[in-house]
Amino acid sequence: GDQLAQRFRGLPEDVTHRQVLTVFKRAAPYLGIPPRLVHAVDTLMSWSRAIDWIDGQRPIVFPSNEKLTQKLGIGVRQVQKMLANAARFGLITHRDSANGNRVGARGKDGRLIYAYGIDLSPLAVRYEEFAAAAREGVEADLRIKVLRQRLSAARRRIRTLAQLLEDEQIDSIDARTAVEIALLATSQMRRVRDEELLAACVEQMEDRAEGLGKAVAAVFHGASDA
Fold first, then answer.
1. DSSP state letters, 126-165
2. What 8-state DSSP symbol labels residue 169?
3. What pLDDT score does 44 carry?
4. Antiparallel, parallel or unpaired: β 93-95 and 103-106
5. Is 118 helix (H, G, I), strand (E, B) or coil?
6. Which residues in the chain show pLDDT less than 70?
7. If I label 2, which of 105, 177, 197, 224 is the partner at 20 to 30 A Cα–Cα?
8. pTM listed for this prediction
């Protein structure tokens, strides 16, 4: 956090601190940042002003722990833990006063004359990283969605073929095991975001569906020949 804060030179002219917050929120799920931390950052940003994010200024907010407990609806201990986690994730850093209090004052122009408290500048420094993570995350979501659709299609095909065998009372093909494996695979892959693992499972299920389809076709072809 400290090293990131030292790199702060203000936001680009076409980027506002509200945009930083929006992009951060979009990126958070893909970076493993818990929702409670996202909510905390959102709350901290509410004390910040656009002028704090220009070059030469510093986006420091100075709510007391008591104020944060009110806003976040959690205890002081939880607030302290939350701030420690936010620093660990590289979202904030601390700029402490001599006595450890969070204090600050603004001039008539709205600029901070002095401020000791929670420094939000790491968010600004990481803006491009957040934007890339959000973009890549959305693209990955689309690829994963397609893989899940293919897995569902393979499972449906296996179940349809199994039903056909049952209706025709053909027991020479063990379709029940294929159905059970397909259902288990679908269940296990429901929350998986590892594209490689998901793709391997999809290919395996499609191969099973294809193999079962050929076996069923061969049985019916043999029956018609007879």
1. THHHHHHHHHHHHHHHHHHHHHHHHHHHHHHHHHHHHHHH
2. T
3. 97
4. unpaired
5. strand
6. 1, 223-226
7. 105
8. 0.78
